[in-house]
Amino acid sequence: MKAKHTIRVVTAIMLAMCLSFVLFCTDLEISVKANSSVIQVPGDYEKIQWAINNATAGSTIIVSSGIYYEHLTVDKVLTLQGENGESIIDGNCIGNVIEVTANNVNISGFTIQNSGLGFWNSGVHTHNSNYSNISHNIIINNGHGIWLECSYNNILSNNSISNNQCGIGLSFSNNNTLANNNVSSSDECGIGLDWSSYNILTGNTALNNGYGIWLYNSSYNTIFYNHIINNTNQVECFNSTNTLDKDGKGNYWSDYEGEDADHDGIGDTPYVIDSNNIDHYPLMEVVIPEFSSNTILFLLAILTLAVTMLLKAKSCLRKRHNVAPTFSLSTE
Question: Is 325 domain-assigned?
Answer without folding.
Answer: no
